[in-house]
Amino acid sequence: MEETEIKEQEADVFEAAPNFQDLTKRSLRYLETGYPVHFTGPSGIGKTSLAMYIAKARKKPMMFIQGNKDLTIKDLIGSFSGYQRHKLKDNYVRSVQKIEEKVSESWREGRLLEAVRKGYTLVYDEFTRSRPETNNIFLPVLEERILPLYGAKQKKSFIKVHPDFSVIFTSNPKEYAGVYQSQDALLDRMITMTMEAMDKEVEISAVVNKTSIERNKAEVIVDFIEKVRKLASNKQDSGIPSLRASIMIADMVHRYQLPVDGNNDEFFQLCMDITWFPLKESIGEKEQQRVKRQLERECKSITER
Ligand SMILES: Nc1ncnc2c1ncn2[C@@H]1O[C@H](COP(=O)(O)OP(=O)(O)OP(=O)(O)O)[C@@H](O)[C@H]1O
């Protein structure tokens, strides 16, 4: 299955949660007017899902690109890959056999070129993970609405961007420092909106939507994850458990029919497996034993309502 299709399915379970409805409306307006939008916020807050949801709402074909350090201009524009041999055997007159052989380089169109040419909505996820020299190709696309065809051996040196083409970027601010410097020139050309805290009600609905678990169980699990976050000393750390942790616990509970009860060994172990590592990453070594005991107490005290 194509990466874009998988992400589209993710968008299907995503409902523009009440606190994101306004963000959705504003984003659609900016995109319609020709401004790219950018969602930034901690891991698991729903940036990618919201980007896909908005892209779908535009009712234009969608293209998905995941930022990474190996992404190159060739991947975005296209490249020639090897040679193709075409053989034409003409047997029209039986006694005369004509064979024509043509050798040509085969062209593989890049994702950005296709999106720009056909007017797609492009979701460029975690774009700050790509190298700045790769991302620079977006400057003329966003500013002059042209895509230069560097090294593409095409007749034209650039193509005009389709009027329907638009981009939704996502990034995690924690990664700016670790990966590549945020690209100010690029950021200056997009409208950046921060997604901070997810509303508790939204988190519960998200868990129910994704796992089909009963609502009362989802509430207990989300409550527990909220308590775990409070145990983390560095609240801004992207290592603390996100919505994904609640989804994982709920998924296992639903699949293996586990009781939502901290006195049940399997459920207790599941909660520890999912939360201890991210929590441990967010605290100093000296604190670890104390926090682990606190976490065990929180796990033990979980009871279904
Ligand atoms: N409102 C929602 N309804 C249902 N599921 C949701 C919602 N928001 C997020 N999710 C689910 O939560 C998980 C995390 O969401 P998503 O991948 O969009 O987060 P993210 O902010 O892009 O995270 P990262 O920065 O780690 O990529 C996904 O499995 C997604 O389907």
TrEMBL record:
SUPFAM superfamilies assigned: P-loop containing nucleoside triphosphate hydrolases (SSF52540)
Subcellular location(s) per record: Cytoplasm; Gas vesicle
Record's GO cellular component terms: cytoplasm; gas vesicle
Regions crossing the membrane: none
Coiled coil: none
Catalytic activity, as annotated: ATP + H2O = ADP + phosphate + H(+)
Keywords of the record: ATP-binding, Cytoplasm, Gas vesicle, Hydrolase, Nucleotide-binding
Domain AAA+ ATPase: 33-202
Top-rank lineage group of the source organism: Bacteria
Keyword Protein biosynthesis in annotation: no
Cited InterPro entries: AAA+_ATPase, ATPase_dyneun-rel_AAA, CbbQ/NirQ/NorQ/GpvN, Gas-vesicle_GvpN, P-loop_NTPase
Molecular function (Gene Ontology), one example: ATP binding
GO biological process: gas vesicle organization
Entry's family note: Belongs to the CbbQ/NirQ/NorQ/GpvN family.
Protein name (database record): Gas vesicle protein GvpN
Organism of origin: Oceanobacillus piezotolerans
